[in-house]
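Work Package 4 report. The design task specified in the project plan requires that, given a folded chain encoded as structure tokens, an amino acid be chosen for each position. We show below one input record used in the internal validation round.
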């Protein structure tokens, strides 16, 4: 049986200790990034633009990956939750800006609601350190 050293990575969100989660968890070479939104005390960063929210989410996810010692190039799976599936094309285009050559496994689904009414998209992903894409 393998043992993996665990590293919890915090974003500093007030919800992390209340709900009991981490922005990301690294276990050995595996990195799991929790569902991430564009929430802020002043409302969703990006307003009513799902693509703008997605860009902010990827900034936050990039910071978590970096803290874990990983990069977007090592992402193997992404999950995109959309409040309205009609936003898939615009959010998918943002996903493609980051992952066009990396091409992780992806699922995108419409959900009934997210944590706040102004949130339009939530993204989570998994990475394996050392699993860089090869063409």
């Amino acid at each position: 049986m393998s043992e993996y050293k665990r590293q919890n990575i915090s974003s500093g969100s007030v919800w992390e200790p209340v709900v009991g989660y981490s922005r990301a968890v690294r276990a050995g070479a595996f990195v799991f990034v929790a569902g991430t939104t564009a929430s802020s005390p002043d409302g969703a960063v990006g307003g009513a633009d799902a693509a703008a929210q997605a860009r902010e989410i990827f900034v936050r996810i990039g910071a978590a990956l970096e803290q874990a010692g990983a990069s977007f190039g090592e992402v193997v799976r992404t999950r995109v939750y959309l409040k309205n599936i009609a936003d898939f094309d615009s959010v998918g285009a943002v996903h493609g800006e980051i992952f066009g050559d990396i091409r992780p496994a992806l699922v995108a689904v419409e959900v009934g609601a997210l944590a706040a009414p102004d949130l339009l998209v939530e993204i989570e992903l998994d990475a394996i350190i050392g699993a860089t894409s090869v063409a």
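The first strand starts at residue 6 and ends at 9. Validation will be extended to a larger panel in the next phase.
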